[in-house]
Amino acid sequence: MKQPLLLSLTLAAGVLATADASAACQLQLSDAQIIYAPVTRGELLTRAGNHFSDSELRVGEPRDLDILMTCDRPARLTLQFIGPAKESGSYRFGASGRATLLLHDLFIDDRQAKIGNAGKEENEMAFTPGAVLTFWQDGRPATGRVMRAKVTIAAWMPADATNVNEQESWQLNGSFVSGDDS
Q1: Which of 39, 99, 88, 95 is nearest to 65 (CA)?
Q2: Which of 3, 104, 105, 117 could potentially form a cystine with 124 if both were Cys, beta carbons 3.0 to 4.6 Å apart?
Q3: Could you give the 3-state DSSP secondary structure of residue 160?
Q4: Is the sign of the CA dihedral 67, 73, 79, 81 positive or negative?
Q5: pTM of the full predicted structure?
Q6: Which region is the signal sequence (predicted)?
Q7: For residue 68, what are the contacts with CB-CB under 8 A and spacing of at least 6?
Q8: Are 157 and 97 in contact (CB under 8 A)?
Q9: Which helix (H) or strand (E) holds 175?
Q10: Residue 139: its pLDDT value, please?
Q11: φ and ψ of 112, to 5 deg
Q12: What is the Cα–Cα distance from 123 to 116, expressed in whole angstroms?
């Protein structure tokens, strides 16, 4: 009998307490853990977008989390996801899978903001290992006390890794870290 794969993403919100001249910021996530139901290879293959000939299979539908950063005073805010890196701008999911995290629908002090990294400013941007995302309003670095946004998480695993004889657990463990770029 084929055993199910147990799939989960464990995320933490980091707190950055900075020097007296800077703001102290805290993060909250709507869910600190995403659990995918136990699933067999056959069930993965029946999901939309997955095919028998694919080299990797999407674990499930992308999941959205709400993220909230609050600071004790107005500051130029930054956000980073720290987790085990995988190639092509993704994070390691289990032994050989990958996960992507996309930040979007970002507001600072109830005003829409763009997300910046590597000279680009966009309405949505992927977290990439080692990169710190900055925020922009009206062409300038955004300053504020409250940042609200959504993070969409998608996970894939190599198709050959779904051929198992025993139950396996796959995880992505990582932390969001806030910052004050003042």
Answers
A1: 99
A2: 104
A3: helix
A4: negative
A5: 0.84
A6: 1-23
A7: 27, 28, 29, 146, 147, 148
A8: yes
A9: strand 168-180
A10: 92
A11: -60, 140
A12: 9
Chain centre distance of CA 155: 10
- Determine if residue 138 is left, alpha or beta; phi over 0 gives left, psi from -120 to 50 gives alpha, anything else beta: left
Helix (H, G, I), strand (E, B) or coil at 116: strand
Q: Which residue has the tokens 């999941």?
A: 63
For 14-142, strand residue ranges (E) read: 25-29, 33-39, 56-58, 63-82, 85-86, 90-93, 97-108, 111-112, 114-117, 120-122, 124-126, 133-137, 140-141
Cβ neighbours of residue 23 closer than 8 Å, sequence gap 6 or more: 71, 72, 73, 74, 75, 145, 180, 182
Each residue's pLDDT expressed in tens, for the chain with a length of 182 residues: 445 555 555 555 544 444 335 778 889 998 877 777 777 778 878 888 888 888 888 888 899 999 999 999 999 999 999 999 998 789 998 888 899 999 999 999 999 999 999 889 999 999 999 999 999 999 999 999 999 999 999 988 888 877 776 777 778 888 888 865 65
Burial 10-26 (b: 16+ CB within 10 A, else e): ebbbbebebeeebbbbe
In sequence order, what are the beta bridge partners of 172?
Answer: 9
Helix extents (H) in 6-139: 41-46
